[in-house]
Amino acid sequence: MATVPDTTTPGPDPVRISDYQADYLVTAGGTLVAKETLTTEFPAGRHGIFRFWDLADPQDEHARLEPRQVTVELDGRSVPVELSWEKGTRLRVAKIGDPDSTVSSGTHTYTITYRIDGVLSPTTVGNGSDASSSWADDRPSESVLYWNVVAQGWQMDIDRSTIRLTLPAASSQVQCTTGVGAATAGPCTIEGAGTDTVTLTTGALPARTPVTVRVSLPVPTPDRVTAPWGIAADGSLGRSGIALAVVLLVTFVLMALAYVLDRRSREDEPGLPVTYEPPTGLGPVQTAYLTTEEVPDRALVATLLHQAERGLTTLSHGDDATWTITGVGDAAAWAATDDVTRFVGESLGVTQPGATFTAGKKTVEAGAELQKTRDELPAVVDRWAEGIGAQRAVPSEVAGRVAVVLSFIALLVVGFVSVVSPVPGIYALPFAGFALGGAGLVTAGVGKRRTALGRDLWSRSGGFERMLSTSSAKDRFDFSGRKDLYTAFIPYAVAFDCADRWARKYETTTGSPAPSPVWLAGGAGSGSAGGGFGGGQDFSGFESSLAGAISAYSATQSSSSSGSSGGGGFSGGGGGGGGGGGSW
Fold first, then answer.
1. Please, where are the H alpha helices in 293-443?
2. pTM of whole model > 0.90?
């Protein structure tokens, strides 16, 4: 793709225009029908030329001067033309030629035709006298053609130019100039003032030198093609105020709809009266899941501790920073425990007396098994909850979740397309609105709803969490004569992520250090030197070893897979018809 050159490009293009001729027909409705005939002198090795048009009008920031029906011929024959956009949708570019072949050296003629609507401006535009002028003021002027008949962006030297204007009525004042601004204004020759045919001629024009004309006409100023904002905003807002209003309305409606779907997916929290034990038959992961409909982060650790507390396994600490889980319980004991606890035991192969599983920071195979087990826990818990009738699937919430995810994907796609194409960024707003309004639909629990049984279990599980995690007097637990319950509830406190608070609650209530459980590393029930189980070295070492094993496995997987606005007087380059061209 030939890029539009910056105005600071040094030196002229290697191709020269020996004769620049243009025929411009202007209708009373403000449409310019253009035919540009360029006689060019080519050196060897060039593929063709490009022509670009600037849609901005320096005198009217709301006007859009877009070329339509662009056709090009080379030496009287068709030639490949690729239309594209540059600088968002400000510059329309025609790339002319074949990238797989070059134009032979010598003289070649390009004929470019196109149409542009809205070229006539109010008479207040471009008043001034920095130009060659001629006029016949028999009738008052109602509009003007203020136009760069040779665009200021042509990169080639031009030997001479001839421009013929066919107007919708006899002209009054006619002005023309060459160069950019009053300081560099040069002469041009005008013929035909007071008639409907005006001819302008110039001599040699250096590269990037415009020829600008201002013709006063006794024709009412027609409506122009406009946008409510400056051209710099077109890439984001498009060009239609009505389209923007429709998009904003659709965005609001979709955001409101998604918000309603989000609110309908929420469940009112039941009362959570303090309870002093978990619901009967539920392990720590199930109890925590019922309060949030999400498997807790420390579910695997909590379950392994629960197995040991129930006498199904023992946990022993090795000298090399490893931990060994040894099966103790028989088949009947494992059958009597909850589904999650049994699943973890089966996955690690410790449901038979004497069976062992060892994990440490360097045990890659054990880490793989631990990670696999941890990753499967959500599905296991979900099946359990549906199996006992504690929750049911809600298809409408699942559909809402999918719609939010798809909206987010569409937002990214449309946003990307708007950057690399003329599609305005506003078309991403409806997707953004739905994704924002329905953000809550991608949180835990959406797509499932607790039944009456589930809400009852939620209430009791939530009340048990309150007892474990709060230190208020009304939630105080009577540990007198029941010290064993402190250690029995440690796995639940781990699942609820409140083991430290549970230990402090024990110490505050009894005035004694929290005991270490006898089932963890051979503890004897004495006070923990680490300030209770929640911060004890045995527990932190056990969890660290499990995390280290999983990390060791993950590391092997990673290493194996890395592989301007209106106003001002008449001057050169100040009118519509900006653009230019060059060769490539």
1. 299-309, 331-336, 339-348, 364-387, 395-420, 429-437
2. no
